[in-house]
Amino acid sequence: MTSSTNIGLERVLEALPHRPPFLLVDDVKDLVLGESCVGIKEVKPDEGYFKGHFPDYPIMPGVLIIEALAQTAGILLYWSLKDSIDFKSKLVVLAGVEKAKFRKSIFPGDTVELFVKRECFRHPIYKISGEAKVKGQTMVTATITAVMTSKKDK
Question: Which listed residue (53, 82, 90, 117) is catalytic?
C-alpha cells in the first residue's frame, strides 16, 4: 500500500488487534505512509461508556479519546512498517502520553477526526503527535509514545 484516501474498516481491523467494543477507529483517510493519517470515529449514542460516564450529560471519556489517537497511530505504524516487520510476532503498545490537553467535550453523535503525525520513529520506540477534532475544531491534543514489543506465549 502506498498513500490512500480511505482504507476502510477491513484494513483497520487488519492493522489493529483491538475489536469492539474497544475498537475506537471506524476508518482512516489521508494515509501517508511513514508520515501521517487521519482516523475517523463516529461517536454513537448507544456506546456502553455513556451509561456510566455522566449519564445526565454524556461526554466521551478523555482516556478513550487518547486511546482512539493511539489506535490511529498504531494503524499508521502498521501500514508504514508491515513490509519490514513481522506483526504476527510483534505488538505495538502505548508507552506514554505527554502534553495532553482537553479543550472541549466530545458528545454522542459527533464525528471525530483523529489526526496523527510522525514525530520520531526509532525502532522500537515511536513518537507521534495527535489531535482530535470535531467539525474542524480542536478538542484534544497529545503526544503519544508507542513501543514495539514481542508477543509472549499465553
Answer: 53
